[in-house]
Amino acid sequence: MIIVTAGHVDHGKSTLIRALTGMNTDRLPEEKRRGMTIDLGYAFMPLKDGSRLAFIDVPGHEKFINNMLVGVSHARHAILVLACDDGVMPQTREHLQILALLPLHSLTLVLTKRDLVDSQRAKQLTAEGLALLAEYHIEASGIFEVSATVDAVSSGVATLKAHILALGEQESVRATDASSFRMTLDRAFSVKGAGCVVTGTVISGNVCVGEHLYSSGQKAKLRVRGIHCQGQEAQAAVTGTRVALNLTGVDNHRPPERGDWLSSLPQAEHCARPVVQIRAFEHLGSEPLVHWQNVHCHHGADHTLGRISLLNEADEDGCYLAELVLDKPLLLCQDDPIVLRHIGGKQTLGAGRVLALKVPNRKKRTPERVAKLHRLACLDNPADVVGFLGQTQALELAEIAWRWQLTDEGLAMLLAQAELVRLGSFAVATSLLQREQQQFIRLLSEFHQQHPDQLGLGRNRLQRMSHSALPPELANKVLDILCQEGRMVLRGALLQLAEHRVVLDREALQCWQALAPWLAEQTAPVWITEMGEYLQLEPAKLRLLCFQLVQQGFITAVVKDRYLLSEQLCHFAGLIRCHIAQQGQLETAEFKQMVGLGRKVSIQLLEFFDRSGFTRRKYRSNSREIRDAELFFSHENWRKNIGVEPTQDCWQPYPDLKSGRLTGDDVLPIEDLGIIENAPR
Ligand SMILES: Nc1nc2c(ncn2[C@@H]2O[C@H](COP(=O)(O)OP(=O)(O)OP(=O)(O)O)[C@@H](O)[C@H]2O)c(=O)[nH]1
Ligand SMILES: [Mg+2]
């Protein structure tokens, strides 16, 4: 447990810590000379169970407010110090404002320098202190009057110490964690014989000696060689403790520095435009926020300048929704506080709580988006937030883990609580999945109605048509599930509803009935012009018919515009298979002789078989061998191979990728058919 001090300069913060712990937190020579705190100071107090409690002593002077912000950035317990002789001063108020913006577990009010005033003044000051806390809706966990420079027993220090020890014991009961290790660095230095040492506050999770951690400042992972936790050598450190880590693997060109982060999870990208909910103190006299106002942004021990892009007007609680446009991106997680100060350093304006790390480029202020952000801001529990987000979008598991800093078990627990299911590397709500499935089915069914002569749609086209909220790889998974459930069927690269059947229209059927016997009499593949002469049809019309017949698997194009019956093709394939089984290979001349056709057409046929994956031409040779004997086995089988299923009146084909008849994963629009090897035009 860590307790931070707060209060106006010279109100006795450091003296109080010395009285409590016996340790002097003002370690710098300059601090000793001037008798004031400049940078953060640390002290420790042993607890009954042998563990230790840490104090962070902050400077009270307004010039060093940046250091104070680093010290309190992840504070959960604080002591607000108020000197009896001075009373409430500007930094008393400002420090309290900053503490009020943080998710504190306890705040103890301590009136110091009690020996300098009478009891009436002390009483009056107690009332003032309480009124001040009430302004910020903070309830003190205890109020103590202390004189830290005189004998500790009679000065109230002992009572305060007892209170702090009790707080420490309560906190140690609370320490259960499913979160991963994350720490902000407030100091980094080199120790002779040990190397790089960094110190900071463990914000979540725990770390052990020997572990490797990601560092935001370094490209490589760093190994933890040694740990000091709460000022003592240790093997591990847990949430809410002050630690010093001895790291190895540090790149000395860019050594760790204040503001860096260490984490056990691979770090997400730094965020330059977080969406935040800003709690401002306008009602307590702070300047009102203005759109596009320049501000100092303090996050952990890191700092940058930025602008506030307001998304709405302040609500009744004085809260705004805003996007922070940061000069330097910060390494943010969900709900992280970002303290906003006036650009002139005059006052604290408020603090933002991180709601989202990814922002859309457009439509930022639509009523729907603002309502969604409002809803998000009202949710405190991570499971509620994840559940809410999962209703409308797929969430990447790695992103959830980073935003809420979760270990694998923590992530599993969160998903279970939020009722999300894992799908690949994503988490989605079942309701969203169902909606997407229904949308795919609806679109495909509409497509079938509009294009009864077509097999179906490719995945990409279906996804584009559905304007799916899911990323492509996840949408593919949803389609796979639909196929596994038998609601859709994948024919080659095309998806169709299970019940969909392609039929030839009446005119096409008549043409085919006339064409089939004529084609059966032909020994060689015929050109489309010959077919046109026979059927007395224009080539354009005939091409459409041929396209349908090819889809149906009745005919096959050997080269563009030259067709033969698929049955005959299988007969040729049978001859090749037989010959190669006996001879081991097939020469072009042998094939020519076997089928009794001309040289040119024989080569066209052999090259077709090569392209479709049935045969392979040997390197620098005119002979061929079998590559996939399963293809073109028999007419019936081949139809099965190309996905043909018998129906009552015709055959259901799907394009065969191996033969290259429909390349790509889409049915191309009719204008683009030219690029398909044997698609008729
Ligand atoms: N009489 C009396 N003097 C006190 C008491 N506590 C602190 N002082 C004196 O007040 C002066 C300032 O005390 P510090 O502890 O340095 O004050 P601080 O709040 O740490 O000041 P900064 O760190 O600069 O913000 C010192 O001279 C102390 O001796 C007290 O209880 N009684
Ligand atoms: Mg001090």
Task: Name the average pLDDT.
Answer: 86
Overall SS class:
alpha+beta
Largest beta sheet: strand ordering: 2-3-1-4-5-6
Main beta-sheet strand count, sense and barrel state? 6 strands, mixed
Outline, from the CA principal axes?
Answer: elongated
State the share of residues found in helices, binned by percent: 25-40%
The poorly predicted ranges are 637-681
InterPro entries: Beta-barrel_SelB, eIF2G, Elong_fac_SelB-wing-hlx_typ-2, G_TR_CS, P-loop_NTPase, SelB_WHD4, T_Tr_GTP-bd_dom, Transl_B-barrel_sf
GO molecular function: translation elongation factor activity
Keywords: Cytoplasm, Elongation factor, GTP-binding, Nucleotide-binding, Protein biosynthesis
Protein name: Selenocysteine-specific translation elongation factor
Structure description:
- The chain has 681 residues and is α+β, with helices and mostly antiparallel strands.
- The chain has 20 helices and 35 strands.
- The strands form 9 sheets. The chain has a 6-stranded mixed beta sheet, with helices on both faces. It has a 6-stranded antiparallel beta barrel with strand order 7-8-14-11-10-15.
- Strand 20 and strand 21 (348-356) form a beta hairpin.
- Helix 11 (430-450) crosses helix 12, helix 11 packs across helix 13 and helix 18 (588-595) crosses helix 19 (599-611).
- The radius of gyration is 38 Å and the shape is elongated.
- The model is unreliable at 637-681 (pLDDT under 50).
- Bound molecules: guanosine-5'-triphosphate and magnesium ion.
